[in-house]
Design a protein that fits this description.
about 40 residues, rod-shaped, transmembrane helix, Cytochrome C oxidase subunit II
Amino acid sequence: MKKSQQPSLKGTLISVFFVGFIIVLMWVSIYFLYVSRL
């Protein structure tokens, strides 16, 4: 049971990092847009 759980856990971790990276990228782009409009 632990062997089948390991790849799914790794995939979940990768997807969480990917989603987090997209959110950070969006916030950075919004911040730079706001700074450029000042």
